[in-house]
Structure formats: C-alpha cells, structure tokens
Design a protein that fits this description.
There is one protein chain. With about 575 residues, this protein is of the alpha/beta class. It folds into four domains: about 160 residues, Rossmann fold; about 100 residues, no CATH class; about 110 residues, Rossmann fold (3-Layer(aba) Sandwich), CATH 3.40.50; about 90 residues, no CATH class. About 40% of the residues lie in helices and about 20% in strands. The protein contains 17 helices and 25 strands. The strands form six sheets. Strands 2-1-7-8-9-4 form a six-stranded antiparallel beta sheet, with helices on one face. Helix 14 packs antiparallel against helix 15.
Length: about 575
C-alpha cells in the first residue's frame, strides 16, 4: 500500500505532499491538479521500472544522465511533447552565479512515494530531467544540491509487488471491438479510449477466473436488473461480442446499455481483472446518477478490498465526497492538497452534520452567501448585471447555501458548523422581511429586505405592462399581438386586484404582499391561460427576466449588492498553487 506522495514541478502541481490510505478521494475544482497527482504516480512507476530494468536491482549508478524514458512509453500520461510534463512548461531556469555570470540550470520533476509492502516500510524517490521533446532522463532522487548523495532505493523485490494502473472514465462503447492483447488494452486505457476495451476486459476476466466473473454478473444484476451474457470471441472476424438480457427476456448488445451501466461494468471488471493493484480512478462517478454514485463507490471499495487493491480516486461528486469522509481519506485540492477529515472529533462531527462538500466550498471561496432559494440568487445577479455593479463578478461562482424557510437559526447553525473547521470564514445572510431579530456575530452578517421579499422590488404595473407589450431587449412580438397582450394583462391585473381586496389581503403593489406567490404566479397563470399560451411561458424561475423592463432600481438593491462586495472582500480563500 502507498502511504505518501510528494510531487514537485509536475504538470499542475508546483509542490504537493499528500497522505494516502487504503482508499483515498481527491476532490477539487477543474484544473486543480487531481488528475496530475494520479498521473504522477503512473510516471513514478514507469520511472522505477525503467531504472531497475536498465541499471539492475542493486545499482545506485551515479551517472548524471540516468536512464532514458520516451514520452510514447508513458501509457497513462500521454503527451505530444515531453515538456508538457513540466509545470508551466518550464524545463530550464536562468539564474546568476556568485560572480554575477548567468547560469542555466535544469528544472527537475521530483516524485517521491512512501509505502508498506509485506509489513516493511519503504521510500522511493525519483527525479526526471528534460532532454528533448521526445525524451527525458530518470534517476534516483538527489538529496543535496551537488547530487553527491542519493536516496537509497528500496529492495527491487518490494517494488516489484507495487503495480499502478490508471483508469479514466467510460467514454462510450464502440459498436465493434477487435480482440486485443493485454498490452494494447493498457495502452488504450491510458489514452482514455475505454470505449475500445470494455468487452476485452470482460473476456479477460471470464477467461482468468469464472468465479470472479460470476461475482461481476451478480453485482450488475443486483444494481441494474439485467443479466450479463458471457463475452464471446469470434475468431473468424477477430471480434469480441457481448450482450445482456433484460427482465423481459429481450437480449441486447452491450452497446445498447446506458452509460451508467457501462461505467459500472468498466470499474468492476477492471478491479476484478487486476488484483493486488493500486488502481487510480479518474472520476469513477462519471455517468452515474446520484443514488448510484453512493452504491458504486461502496461496491468498488468492497471489491478492491477483496482483491487486495488500493483505490485512489479523483472526483467532483458531493455524494462520493461525503461517503468517503465517513471512513476513507479525502484530500482537497484547494491551495496545497491537504486532508480535510482529520480536524478532530468535534470538528468532524460538525462537518458530518453539514456535509464535507460545504467545507470544501468554504475553503475554496472563503465566504458563504445565504439566500432563500435559487430564484433570489438569479434576481441578485440580474440586478448586479443591469447596474454594472462589481457584485456581478463575485456572484458568478459564489458558495451559496439556500435557507428555504427564512429561519436565521438555520443559517447560523450551518455557518458556525463550517467555522469550526475554517475559523476565518465570513458570511452574509439576506432574508425576506421576517419577524425575527437579526444579529452580527463571529463573521456572519445578517440583513433583511424592508419590503416583503426581493420580488417586490420589480413587481409593478409598469414592469408587467412593458413585458406584455414586448418592450424588452430580446422581444420579437409582432405589432398585431401587442394590443391583444396589453388588453389581457390589464384585465388580469384588475381581476387580481379585485380578488385581493375581496379577501382582505394587502393591495397589489403593497410592500407587504408576497409578490412572487400572491401576485406574479397567479397573474402570469391567468395571462397565459387567457391567450392560450403554455403555462411555463413565465414561471417563478424566470421572474428575474422582468428586471430588464424596470426603469429605476430601488437604492436598497444597491445596498445589498454593496454588502455582498464588502463581505466577499474579507474572505480568505485558500489560494490555488
């Protein structure tokens, strides 16, 4: 089992020191280095195998050139140019010596791995030195600036038991799949062409171990209710075929199956066919719906344990993150990669209650915005865009948590739960006009609208009539329809106003009325019905579009947007490397 990974100057990672365990999940935004970390392990394995193959098991050769690796030999790290392996493509650096003369030095990729094999702890560090676009050198990691000492490599017999395999997500399934040799299967998998090898993997497993094949069949039947047929090899055509039976008895080719089933089959077949392997999974949750993500994550870890495999996975899934946080290791690629589930029992309890994905987002953004729901968020963004307010950029990708019941206590509990782990977190909560006392404590600013809710700030007769007439920037309403729509809107407004008066509710344009539910929803429902239009022409999720028809924006909107800018400006997110 691998227990630690140290990386310098490799692809997206300037420097990383990552603790590993039996099952690890890397979580982080796109381009944060998750896949780079997986590929670093694959490069490390290729490096030590090349070293022992060319230098011998007992060699500590001091030759500066090391052994040569060709980029084409890197199955799991396919690059068209060797310098793409180096961070920011920097393979050399210029510096001045003590005498002031310029000097060029090579920048080295360093990858060091620690592990335990047969109860023995070992450490293996390698450095990679750029040669040209096609190749680079590999040698044991130097431990001082002059390179006089080298790290002692572990016994080759221990490393020979370490096998690393990289598995990208399912890429679809080819209609025809030729029979492939194991080496070619590994090459295609490394290139991300899993669509070309799924049937071959199943055939390989079926030929290796019938009992493991039966286990796979049972898993798939339990999860998807279908029965896998044995893979068949047609020697005449040189093709592998595979089908399955549905509950109805209909037999279909595997290509007819959903991508989620194919993804699950890929994961299980690969782990079953590769026992005692460190399996690097890039987005194992790809193509899987939320309920399946939890099931499959648990299952692949159970199968991996049975097969003596270690799982190191990179994922974007909140479900996988929360599932892993209970019993496995979670490494957040925010700032420098670091564990996020070793915060102590009290903090761990708090994070379990609020969800680890919330803590991850808090680390990445440094602040949190509390709103009633997603419609409020859309409205705030639209107002910010209309006004050209700096809050617009901030609201492009904030950490927003919705408090549907407008209860300040819910926002406070959530905020302080995360703050247990991220002590410098700041937040802003904007509530409807509610009968509750607001507070400001420990970094959470609480505000409320003076009118009933945010929709009241653009719910007016002028806005609704402008919408009906089609006076917006994107409207293409024919002139013949304008008068008809205007007449229908006038009638609907009057009827709704009469109904509100009859029931004793606040008047149509009152600041106390709940504009979304008591005005806009019934008004547009009646308007669409009257003109024979689909009811979804204007629903609650589209109310923010009405802001385009608003002439003057209430100053209170600007105040709330200013508050967003102020709180976001105090955030202390972990900076990406």
């Amino acid at each position: 089992m691998l227990t630690r990974l140290i990386i310098r100057n490799f692809k997206r990672l300037a420097e990383a020191d990552i603790d590993l365990s039996q099952s690890v999940v890397f979580i982080g935004p796109n381009n944060s280095g998750k896949t780079s970390a997986l590929q670093a392990l694959a490069l490390w394995e290729a490096g030590w195998r090349a070293w022992f193959s060319k230098r011998g098991a007992n060699s500590q050769a001091e030759k500066r050139s090391g052994v040569t690796l060709n980029r084409k030999d890197l199955i799991a790290v396919a690059v068209p140019d060797a310098n793409l392996l180096w961070r920011d493509l920097h393979v050399r650096a210029s510096e001045r010596q003590d005498d002031g003369k310029p000097k060029t030095r090579n920048i080295l990729i360093e990858i060091c791995v620690e592990g335990v094999t047969a109860g023995k702890v070992w450490r293996c560090g390698l450095e990679f030195d750029y040669a040209n676009t096609e190749s680079f050198y590999c040698r044991p990691l130097r431990t001082d600036a002059e390179g006089k000492e080298r790290m002692v490599l572990p016994d080759a017999s221990m490393l020979e038991q370490v096998r690393v395999a990289f598995l990208p997500p399912m890429s679809g399934l080819a209609s025809i799949e030729p029979k492939l040799e194991p080496g070619r299967i590994n090459v295609l998998i490394g290139e991300g062409q899993t669509a070309q090898v799924l049937r071959n993997l199943c055939l390989m497993l079926h030929e290796q171990d019938k009992q493991l094949w039966n286990n796979l069949v049972q898993h798939v039947q339990s999860l998807f209710g279908i029965h896998l047929q044995e893979p068949l090899y047609n020697a005449v055509r040189g093709e592998v075929s595979m089908s399955y039976k549905e509950r109805s008895g209909t037999q279909l080719d595997l290509a007819s199956a959903g991508r989620g089933l194919q993804q699950t089959l890929l994961l299980l077949a690969y782990i079953y066919a590769n026992p005692r392997t460190i399996v690097l999974l890039d987005e194992p949750d790809a193509h899987l719906e939320i309920l399946r993500q939890r099931q499959i994550y648990r299952l692949i870890n159970e199968v991996a344990e049975q097969q003596g495999c270690q799982i190191i996975a990179a994922s974007h899934s909140e479900v996988v993150l929360n599932e892993a946080a209970e019993k496995d290791s979670v490494v957040a690629f925010v700032g420098k990669p670091h564990l996020i589930n070793n915060k102590g029992q009290q903090v761990l309890k708090a994070l379990n209650n609020i969800g680890f994905e919330n803590y991850y987002l808090a680390e990445e953004r440094g602040w949190v915005l509390y709103l009633e729901g997603s419609t409020d968020y859309d409205i705030l963004r639209t107002f910010a865009k209309k006004l050209g307010h700096p809050a617009f950029e901030i609201l492009e990708a904030p950490f927003v948590h919705y408090v549907g019941n407008n209860r300040p206590s819910q926002a406070r509990d959530h905020f302080h739960g995360i703050k247990e782990a991220k002590t410098d977190l700041v937040g802003l909560a904007i509530f409807d006009n509610i009968s509750a006392d607001l507070t400001f404590q420990q970094g959470l600013v609480e505000l409320m609208w003076s009118k009933r809710e945010i929709e009241n700030y653009f719910c007016s007769e002028a806005v609704l009539m402008a919408w009906a007439r089609g006076k917006g920037p994107a409207d293409l309403i024919e002139m013949a329809e304008v008068s008809l729509r205007e007449e229908a809107m006038t009638e609907c407004i009057q009827k709704l106003a009469d109904a509100l008066e009859t029931t004793g509710k606040p008047s149509l344009w009152s600041a106390e009325i709940k504009a979304s539910e008591e005005v806009l929803e019934p008004l547009f429902r009646n308007f669409c019905k009257k003109l024979g239009m689909p009811p979804q022409t204007m629903n609650k999720g589209q109310f923010h579009q009405l802001i385009a028809y608003l002439e003057d924006v209430d100053p209170e909107i600007v105040e709330k947007l200013d508050a967003i800018v102020e709180v976001a400006g105090k955030a202390r997110p972990l900076e990406a490397e």
